[in-house]
Design goal:
globular, single chain, 4 helices, two-stranded antiparallel sheet
Length: 150
């Protein structure tokens, strides 16, 4: 994915950090890969949506990204707008090489992923990515109130 492109990652309310009733950050657990379970294999990347796949202004694109998320986001959840170039820059250090990849699927052409995250959580890496690469934390309720898709 080009450095100037972006991905949008759904973030559940439980991972948000509040101060005086306002969201001021995201907990590092929001970027942790899920461990294996009897029902699924070890997660190897985090799902996201390729922002530039959609046309329109910023509100229209964020709404489209929200609608393209396979989960059912709740109004108080957030959509994290992440720059691919910043993710590469701040995710490349020590033994890490974190990247955003556009991975179109037959039924979801906008599908993307965050690759290169360690299977054993690294809070320092995740904090670095969340503080340096996330450009916006838009509430789902705001995104869904955006203009209708064209």
């Amino acid at each position: 994915m080009a450095d100037e492109h972006h991905i949008v990652r759904h973030c559940k309310k439980k991972f948000l950090i509040y101060k005086d009733g306002e969201v001021v950050g995201v907990q590092p657990e929001a970027l942790e890969l899920r461990p294996p379970s009897p029902e699924r294999k070890q997660e190897t990347y985090l799902s996201a949506v390729h922002y530039e796949h959609f046309a329109g202004d910023h509100p229209a694109r964020m709404k489209s990204c929200c609608e393209a998320t396979p989960l059912q986001p709740k109004p108080e959840d957030r959509l994290l707008l992440i720059n691919a170039g910043l993710l590469k820059r701040h995710g490349t250090y020590d033994r890490y090489k974190v990247r955003a990849l556009h991975m179109p699927k037959a039924d979801r052409k906008s599908y993307a992923g965050i690759h290169g995250l360690p299977t054993k959580a690294d809070a320092n890496l995740n904090n670095r990515l969340l503080t340096q690469c996330v450009l916006e934390r838009m509430p789902v309720r705001v995104a869904m109130a955006g203009p209708p898709n064209v």
